[in-house]
Design goal:
With 235 residues, this protein is an all-alpha fold. The protein has helices at 19-44, 46-50, 61-89, 94-129, 136-176, 182-199, 206-209, 217-233.
Length: 235
Amino acid sequence: MTITAPAPIPAHPVAPIDPMRNHARAAGIFYLLTFASSIPALILIGPILHNAGYVTGAGQDTRVLWGCLLDAVNALTAVGSAVALYPVVKRQNQSLALGFVTSRMLEAAVIMIGVVSLLAVVTMRQDFAGSAGGDAATLTVTANALVDVRNWTFLLGPGLMPAFNAVLLGTLLHRSRLVPRIIPAVGLIGAPLRLAAMRRTSVPSLAIAASPTGPALTITTVSPVCTSSLRVSTS
């Protein structure tokens, strides 16, 4: 008598996980963290930006330090979003993809210069409060100069660089057809408009020019929209 072993039941094939989907998801998360950190940071550092006598006054150091921390998070997430998207978009044009990463890194570096400038003002205020006979006039001039440095970094970093980011990323996504073409087209149209608006920007109007509710809203929002659509397309 021969006993026949039952035929093995074939296992269901497991669909391979597309790594590009994970990269696109990570980029979307980084962009969300960018918005979640940059807007509260601008509110928290308000006292040091709008009070010319901050360095010699009582100050709100804890609040300002939290704002500087969020600005640093903003800079790190800018780099993270570009690095996460690089493997996805380099298949279209590696030079443009590398340019996008470089642009985001430059934006992050400029933001960090502003963070360090404000941290220096906080340190000067603490040193002045703990010393007797300090030169208040000299400290005030130096602190205001450091705040002006931060204002210029705000203009050149979050204000100007998103236009270049939109051109590079919009071109890559428009060529790849991984997302509906209307989405990168918004960034490609908005980028020159943003550059034109920057020409009319003066330092006292930085809060309006580079505000998330200003003309840059179209450009800065097109990237997370693109990455969200990209995640769906690569699934």
